[in-house]
Amino acid sequence: MVTSNVRxxxxxxxxxxxxxxGAVMVIFWPPLFTTQLQKMMTLSPDSMSFSIWRETPIPxxxxxxxxxxxxxxxxxAGTATKVRVEEMGxxxxxxxHVKVNLTWNDHNSTLTFYNQRFWHFxxxxxxxxxxxxxxxxxxxxxxxxxxxRHQRLIIKVPVDVFLRLYHxxxxxxxxxxxxxxxxxxDPVLDIxxxxxxxxxxxxxxxxxxxxxxxxxxxFDGSFNLNTGASDFSRLGNVEQWKFSNRTDHWxxxxxxxxxxxxxxxxxxxQPELFVFxxxxxxxxxxxxxxxxxxxxxxxxxxxxxxxxFDNGYKYPQMACYCDIVRDDNCVPAGAxxxxxxxxxxxxxxxxxxxxxxxxxxxxxxxxLNATEDMNFRLALEMFTGMPLSVAAQLQINLLVRxxxxxxxxxxxxxxxxxxxxFRFRQETATTPEYAALARQALRLRYWIPYAMxxxxxxxxxxxxxGITLLVRKLITSPETEPILSxxxxxxxx
Length: 493
Fold this sequence. Notes:
Blueprint: H1 4-41, H2 48-54, E1 60-69, H3 72-77, E2 83-105, E3 110-121, E4 133-137, H4 139-147, H5 153-166, E5 171-175, H6 176-182, H7 187-194, E6 222-226, E7 238-241, E8 272-277, E9 282-294, E10 297-303, E11 336-337, E12 347-350, H8 359-363, E13 365-366, E14 377-380, E15 387-401, E16 416-429, H9 432-476, H10 486-492
Transmembrane segments: 12-33, 450-471
Pfam families: CD36
Keywords: Cell membrane, Disulfide bond, Glycoprotein, Membrane, Receptor, Transmembrane, Transmembrane helix
């Protein structure tokens, strides 16, 4: 039979051990968890994150909506007051990414690579066929007119005659497949590419928004990505694009920064995130919006607000998206000029249906209806940096301005119209399998400290129990003499 002395000794021993162990683990578990997380997330040939990053295993889909101009006859006749568009689609393509030509730069903890992308049409997910005809602005006509805008009239008039030899007007009808991947032949483009020293420097024999891009190794350019090995907080940051740390914009707007959206360091609730988008040759700023739950995982959603593509009208720090000397090339807020990285074409990027943009854009187009669900959004789990959902949504527009002398370009009702060509939504969300992995990591993060707290509490209770037994033993032991004897108490009275 265990004596009370042994019992109290065991309780005190086990209680002390549990209190010390629990307290030590509560203190040291967070850095231990962070260390293990960094080991898993840091990009290296044998890290857990590398295989997921190199070839994204989660299904991705690109949804494309075209804006078909439905009142061309009225515009050509001069009776239209606005450009009227009809949105067609979505035309859905399954998208896959593979990182190729990898070069590890151990001296500065970066990785240089190219992003090879593939698209496959999914007719069962689409609203329409890639044989659907779309009528819109002829990009070749609009580009030549835009490039000639500063030339003398004596030069522009022959250009106008030349364009009219091959085109009746400034509109073009082609099917979805041709607008996107197959390309559209244009005799003007063929002739222009044969004449040296022309400002029209399109290095392709056809025009298509994704022409020669499907499976291309170098179309998106080279990326230099931080692996997080020397500074984990920079994990996933683009350090250079096309072997430079700057783009064509001046000032802060020309800095190459942000993540490509696939790999993030734990963000811990920063008010803003930066996504580097090679399609716009710049980064996009997303602001913290609200908490969300995806597959039962709590995250924070970031989205674009009215500061995106502002050009400095509302937010002075965004003025660098216009030339240093602001002129009529600096368009109202909400559209970013990407002509310098699109072979001089008057291409501008905005949110779909000119969401959050200056109302002047939508006022010239019939058929637009901007809603908040068209916004650019990204949700992250804060402690692991895991992307929970992505809805990358942008719109490609052509700026059509009346150019004196080039009459074929001057048919639109308004002299300065931003014409929407198409919008896209690249959407993905975490799968149940990857959500289960994230939940497992989060359980370790939260449950281990709770278990240690419980261990500490149990240890304290065992200590109290052991001390209670010890005190009770001391009080009731016959070998312990009372402090005052009975005779002393009687003598005192």
